[in-house]
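Before relying on records like the one below, remember that each one covers exactly one chain. Contacts with other chains, cofactors or solvent are not represented anywhere in the record.
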Amino acid sequence: MTPKIKIHLADDHQVLIDGLSNLLQTVSKFEVAGTSIDGTTVYDDVSKGKADILILDISMPKKDGIETLKEFNKKQLPCKVIILSSYDDLKIIKEVMKLGAKGYLTKNCAGDNIIEAVEAVYQGQDYFCDAVRKKIFNTFKDNPKLNSNIMIENPILSPREIEIITLIALEYSGKEISEKLFISSHTVETHRKNIMKKLHIKSTVGLAKYAFKNNLINP
């Protein structure tokens, strides 16, 4: 029998926890293994329930989501985190991504996206709800500041590949990138495949996250 995906919900609003719990449990392979309404208990609660996925509110009482993520990193608890927040502030999104969050949902879109988010993150993918994704891309497009010389966490990309990934994250098409960098569309596609392979990234959202996390684009 295939083991269920264990999910822990951490939010200070019991009504929201109940609603999400009921929704998640409509999926037979999901199990809500526990809940927390106080930030100080999240780590211990998740550890006891051995959850695979933690859905974590940023604005928890006594200890917020940022501090909880830091605790998870320090103690190396193997649980993937999806942030659930009332905010779509890019500074907050960037901070939680650097702390290892794999997904980000606003509470307005949680009901429509939570099942998809859990499945994607459990499979090792990153997940942003549409509202957050659009805000990231629109901000990049409105005020892009490209910096291809910046030091990144994993300097395995060439300067040209950094240019390519940044432009892909800005949603430039292959044709637009080739025109901007004076290279052929075939060369752009070759670079894109190499980048995906080097970074083990499978989607444009993943590329955007990498560019954002490593300050290749500063909104």
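Residues 145-152 have pLDDT under 50 and may be disordered.
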